[in-house]
């Protein structure tokens, strides 16, 4: 909600909150229940997997973190057309750290495809 510009000012926010209070079940509003125009405005919403609670059987933490890292690295490489130095800068990582993560996660082939596609 903070990332949205709210061109309708406080009235727009008030109307949205009232609508969500009526339409949503339970005490918590999930990101998926927000209108598309608000979700589309927030890049972080599109990146982070939604975990609103941990089931009794638990979650695979390492798998979720790995999935998130792969997505971030892939997006950065796409944005920089495969330029590892620029991608590392976008992710606020050292280039060598990014290169190691690319190797560990098996993304080297994806980097080459991105480079070829953008040549």
Q: Helices and strands, in N-to-C order?
A: HHHHHHH
Helix content: 55-70%
Q: Got a strand count?
A: 0
> What fraction of residues sit in β-strands?
under 5%
Morphology: extended
| Alpha carbon gap, first and last residue | 38 Å
Task: Provide structural commentary.
This protein is an all-alpha fold and 119 residues long. 59% of the residues lie in helices and 0% in strands. The chain has 7 helices and no strands. The protein is extended and about 50 Å long. The chain starts with 8 loop residues before the first helix and ends with a helix. The mean pLDDT is 83.
Features:
single chain; 119 residues; mainly alpha; extended
Briefly characterize the structure.
This protein has 119 residues and is mostly helical. 59% of the residues lie in helices and 0% in strands.
């Amino acid at each position: 909600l903070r990332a949205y510009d709210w061109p309708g000012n406080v009235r727009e926010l008030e109307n949205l909150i009232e609508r969500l209070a009526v339409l949503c079940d339970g005490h918590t509003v999930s990101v998926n229940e927000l209108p598309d125009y608000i979700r589309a405005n927030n890049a972080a919403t599109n990146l982070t997997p939604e975990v609103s609670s941990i089931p009794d059987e638990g979650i695979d933490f390492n798998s979720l973190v790995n999935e998130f890292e792969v997505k971030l690295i892939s997006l950065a490489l796409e944005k920089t057309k495969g330029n590892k130095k620029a991608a590392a800068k976008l992710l606020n990582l050292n280039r060598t750290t990014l290169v190691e993560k690319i190797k560990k996660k098996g993304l080297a082939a994806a980097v080459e495809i991105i480079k070829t596609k953008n040549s």
